[in-house]
Amino acid sequence: MASLIPCPHCGVRPKEEFAIRGDASLVRPDPESSDETWNDYVHIRANPRGRYREHWQHVAGCRRWLVVERDTFTHEVFSVTDGSVRAWEIGR
Amino acid sequence: MPHQFQERHALEELVSMNAAAAADHLAVVARQAIVVVLAAEGQEASVAALLTADEEISVRFSAPGEWLVVTGLQTPELLQQSLAALLRETAHCVDQSHGRVLLRLSGANSRAILAKGIGIDLHPSAFVIGSSANVLCGHISINLALVDKNSFEIVVMRSFAESLLHDLCEMGRAFDLSVFFAP
Amino acid sequence: MTAYRLSAGGLVDRATSLNFTFDGQSMKGLAGDTLASALLANDQMLVGRSFKYHRPRGIVTAGASEPNALMTIGSGARTDPNTKATVAELYAGLEARSQNSWPSLKYDVGALNGLLSPFLSAGFYYKTFMWPAAFWEKVYEPIIRKAAGLGRAVLERDPEAYEKCWAHCDLLVVGSGPAGLMAALTAGRAGLRVILVDEGFRHGGSLLSETTPIDGEPAAAFVDKALSELATLPNVTLMARTTVFGWYDDNVFGALERVQKHLAVPSSKLPAERVWRIAAKRALLATGAEERPLVFGGNDRPGVMMAGALSTYANRYGVAAGKLVALFTNGSAGYRTAADLAAHGIDIAAIIDSRADSTEVAPFGTRVIRGGSIVDTKGRSRLSGITVERSGFEERIDCDAMGMSGGFSPVIHLACQRGAKPVWSETLKAFVAPDVGAGLRLAGSAAGLYALAACLKDGADKARTIASDLGLLTSAAHLPAVGEETTASFTALWYVPGARSKAFVDFQNDVHAKDLGLALREGFGHVEHAKRYTTNGMATDQGKLSNVNAVGILAGMQGVSPAELGTTTFRPFYTPVPFGALAGTSRDEHAAPKRVSPLHGWAARNKAVFIESGLWYRSSWFPRAGEKTWRESVDREVLNVRENVGLCDVSTLGKIEVFGPDAAEFLNRLYCNPFLKLPVGKARYGLMLREDGMVYDDGTTSRLSDEHFLVTTTTALAGGVMSHMEYCAQVLWPELKVRFCSVSDQWAQMAIAGPKSRLVVQALVEDDVSNAAFPFLAAKAVTLKGGLKGRLFRISFSGELAYELAVPAGYGEAVADKVMDVGRMHGICAYGLEALNVLRIEKGHVTHAELDGRVTPDDAGFGRMLSSQKADFIGKRLSTRFGLTAADRMQMVGLKPVEKDKDIRAGAHLLREGAKPSTLNDQGYVSSACYSPVLGQFIALGFLKSGRERYGEKVVVWDRLRGEETLAEICNPVFVDPANTKLNS
After folding, report:
1. Does CATH number 3.30.1490.10 belong to domain B25-30+99-181?
2. Beta strands in C268-379 (DSSP E)
3. Residue C399 pLDDT > 60, yes or no?
4. Domain range annotation of chain B
5. A17 near B CB under 8 A
6. Cβ within 8 Å of residue C887, ≥6 positions away
7. Residues C528, C529, C530, C532: what is their CA dihedral angle, to the nearest 10 degrees?
8. How many helices (DSSP H) and strands (DSSP E) are in chain B?
């Protein structure tokens, strides 16, 4: 029926306003990186039960890409931050 | 040979000209100027300050560093020019006057009508006068603003305007919502 | 006559009589009745046939847990099967029909099943119908479907309207009985935004059948006072006829409001039902407790009811279920009912108390058999007596109705819908809800409190705690004074030994105690297995009455505590929700929004046939008088574009403006081909890849100024490309100074294509559009004659000399009309999506039919666009991986049937001549095909292994769907003007 995601820019919104992309911990490799590194980045995904960081886009709101940290089992949402903030943090 | 082109509103054939409005009323604004303002990096705060200081325009929040500027007082060209003069190099201004349709929903039941499509809390204590936000209404993304006690303004993409109008009429059926072009 | 309307009492309006029918028979009820109470008032105890054995069944409860009294209500398209008569509000003209009986309720052929019952034991589906396998679909299943089963849905289109709605509150109170009402009052007075929901058509819950006075007045008067106070509080919303059916993530509750299911003639302005999504900061479940049946021989005979239901029918509806009523109880509740009935002058045959040492006091003169049990019941389709056993002696006692009370189970369904497991309470002999967090609390009987005063207090206390949690301090609530109450107590009794006939656990699914034993013996003793094996607890009531008894019996047979056995899983919905209500308004044309092009009116005036394309309605072709088939129109449009000029609406393409000092760098990383050096005033075809090296989307990008670009996308991926660009800018390269904005809706865009297009465009715009001043791929702002500003692009999808003109959307139609006007002397025609498709296939241009996610740039013939100069772009690294560079990859080719009159269709596969069709022999496939009026034959684009080396070779086009094989010649995919002379003219 519904889940509510607290968008850091727009406030609490129903999940229908968002699109999910998946694992937010991935860092796009350097173009010179090995086949394995690129294969991992593009194709390999864990599907963990429990705490997980995902990229969600607030498509019907601010259109920002957000990092939603949630529990994939209980769907408890721990934090929602702007994706670019996260991108800067991980050393880009 | 110069050509004269007649402008056509997206809802022209669906909505009649102004007549007596019911207690709950949806006014379709026939002409407005709407510009998307995108602040250049690092200029978000100064752009916001300049925009909010301008009394001729209404500023609607879209996203961090991004606003819809709405006015019924200026033509699209004039608005574009005045914003360019106001903001200079600090922002990019994109004319959307033709790309958006402006609707004004008012009446004591306006919140009850909108609650049929909008998931955010519209209680006067939660969504106060002057608030604005991009939200989903049914299947359609809109920008919603509370401009007066019971009066909301909706900005919707032109291609979706007809569907949104149908949805709003359906949502307002129980309240005998009337729909006319704004005088 | 046995059941009858009492001469006085109850909350029914005796002045308002309502006519209704049951199985075609006219009956009368009163305003305030449920269908069940009205049926009882008409002495209609027999209401249905059971699921499996077709046994006669009567009304058992007075609420949502009813397993038997399922009716089909309404007529024609407005027919609802499986409606519980016990909650259906009576209205004048209501038409009810019994279910699962043929030819009639009284004489049911299926009752033979009862004789076959040894073969219909638990797991019978799995055993009986396993062999022979072929019989299942053709023989067994249709028979079972016909014989078993509940009501039938009608096939007519549902004429009702439905809708969905959001609500927000500080506190949602579910249930308006004593606890719920006090909670709402307390929280409402404290200023919380409260929503009080009740599934009944009248607020008050158990208070409506309560006989203990409150503040010296009847309980119903207390309810009225409380409701009128709540109605004056603007922060309180009262919702009756509303069932909260689910508890979802983040404390959002789903509720179904039956807006006008109780009206014979519904208002056309309102929906029949409404689904609410209620986002509540806190919720309080005051859902009460469910009385448990007793599992004894013959306990399904019509006339055997829940003791509490007997009280409710008498106290609230003024209806006696019988003239002489027996009670079978394992606790104090049976005595309470006896007192209630006696107060209404109903004779009590006896109270049979399973406890030998009980001390409860029965109404004066009532016979009490302590330490007794019922082993059988008598009567055909109506109870006439019971066989009571005590200390080895049996006695027959006459009665025409009886009440059973097996203790209470708190209604904790909602609290356990999100994974929390119910906890066994040894003191309460019931499963209770565990702590599920501050968002949801339980109060009153739902929390295991059974005394009225305790429930009132608990509701008030819990609401105060919630108010203070939310930062609102309240003073202690005034608690109403409650008259004298007996302490509620009972001992557990899961199964009454010595049953002479079937002792049912689940009435709705015809599961009796022996079925559970069989399940256990056959290895299905786990509670979840037993449920599936016996069907106990399935279907519309989901075991509201039966589950706890089933658990008790299974636990007893295994010698463990119910705590060890646990319960089956609670899931939404608490009670059934119609599909229509879940769909709301999202059906038919409202299922998805319709996007309208700014040139829609122009196309309609030119008699376009429209086609759905994603959310858009695009003009497909423009038939003219005398054209009998779409092909005639399309052929004409194509030839006219090739010979003269045509106008096509291309407004639906995605248009994204890109700004900023790093805009060029951003696009250079986004596309596989270079963009840094694109000159201002020029457009360039760009190909976007996915990170895995496959083509994602294509389009032209124009540089409007140094730091200002206009990207176009395909119609289909306009939204996807925008999101992709946002991801790249925000997450991958936040260091790039770039901003963008979709302008898809701002511009009406028209393709003006054909050798005479320049004449048309020049007649329209001030600027010089000659080949010298405005060569192929020019892209500039222009001024139309008369001053309107627009944008002009010299780009071509058709392969002809062509322009795309963009003007502000509101002017689109007027400009398109003018284009037709000035083009008339040049033979202009409107052309649609079909002609556009033919034109682009003739020219070998790709769409998503080709770029289907499995195609690399090289496959599609764009290998040279991949920039090796660029350090990086999306898809660069994996473009070079093994497999994407193999020489035998399928490459795009053109195909022409060898015999000119043969056709080719998209989706067909390509085989070598003489090769057997198989995956191994597959050489490729046809992606697009059309009839080319220019070439006078069918042509196609396809992908073929090493295709570019094989021009001139012949392949078999194998169309399995139509069973056709056509020999085709492989050729260059550009069928028309391969030298681009027309394009550049």
Report:
1. no
2. 273-285, 289-291, 304-306, 319-320, 324-329, 347-353, 368-370, 373-378
3. yes
4. 25-30+99-181, 33-95
5. yes
6. C946
7. 90
8. 4, 10
| Percent of chain C whose predicted confidence (pLDDT) is above 70 | 95
Q: Which contacts qualify for C759-767: CB closer than 8 Å, 24 or more apart? A: C759/C645, C759/C826, C760/C645, C760/C819, C760/C822, C760/C823, C760/C826, C760/C828, C761/C792, C761/C803, C761/C805, C763/C822, C764/B3, C764/C805, C764/C815, C764/C818, C764/C819, C764/C822, C765/C790, C765/C792, C765/C805, C767/C792
CB atoms within 10 A of CB C475: 9
| Cβ-based contacts of C657 with chain B (< 8 Å) | 94
Say whether C239 sits in a helix, a strand or coil. strand
Q: Copy the structure tokens of residue C629.
A: 């088939």
What crossing angle do the helices spanning C757-764 and C812-823 adopt, rounded to 10°?
120
Chain A environment of B66 (Cβ under 8 Å): 62
Asked whether C259 and C271 are in contact (CB, 8 A), the reply is yes
Class of domain C162-289+411-469: alpha beta
Domain with CATH 2.40.30.110 in chain C: 886-984
ipTM of this complex prediction, to 2 decimal places: 0.97
Pairing of strands C162-174, C194-197: parallel
Q: In whole angstroms, how far apart are CA C579 and each of B167, C274, C972?
A: 20, 11, 53
Among the partner-chain residues C277, C726, C872, the one whose CB lies closest to the CB of A2 is C277
- From B46's Cα to the closest Cα of chain C, the distance in A is 17
- Pair C601, C813: CB distance under 8 Å: yes
B108-156 pLDDT, tens digit each: 999 999 999 999 999 999 999 999 999 999 999 999 999 999 999 999 9
Q: pLDDT digits over C430-443, tens only? A: 999 999 999 999 99
Contact C330, C355 (CB under 8 A): yes
Domain A4-27+35-89 has CATH 3.40.109.10: no
The pTM is what?
0.94
Query: What's the token pair of residue C952?
Result: 């001139």
The CATH architecture that domain C600-652+746-840 belongs to is 2-Layer Sandwich (3.30)
- C737: closest chain B residue by CA: B41
pLDDT, position C110:
61
**Cα-based distances in Å from C87 to B53, C82, C219, C742:** 59, 12, 21, 53
Instruction: For residue B134, give the nearest of A14, A16, A62 by CB distance.
Output: A62
Asked whether the beta carbons of residue B2 and residue C586 sit closer than 8 angstroms, the reply is: no
Which among C275, C285, C31, C259 has a CA at the least distance from the CA of C177? C285
Distance (Å) of CA C509 to CA B76, C63, C122, C512: 69, 18, 11, 9
Residue type at C342? A
Asked whether the bond before C129 is cis by omega within 30 degrees of 0, the reply is no
CA distance C192 to C473: 11
User: Would you call A81 an interface residue with chain B, using a CB distance cutoff of 8 Å?
Assistant: no
Angle, nearest 10°, between helix axes C178-189 and C452-469?
Answer: 30
User: DSSP state, C525?
Assistant: -
Please give the structure tokens belonging to residue C496: 């009454």
> B99 vs C745: CB contact, 8 Å cut-off?
yes
Residue C725: strand, helix, or coil: helix
CB–CB contact C726 A21 (8 Å): no
Binding-face residues of B in 125-144 toward A, CB within 8 A:
133-136, 141
Ranges C17-26, C601-610, C859-868: which has the least confidence: C859-868
Q: What SS3 state is found at C916?
A: coil
Distance CA C781, CA C808 (A): 12
Closest CA to C956 of C927, C906, C913: C913
* Tally of residues, chain A: 92
Give me the torsion for CA of C71, C73, C79, C84, rounded to 10°: -50
Assess whether pLDDT exceeds 70 at residue C113.
Answer: no
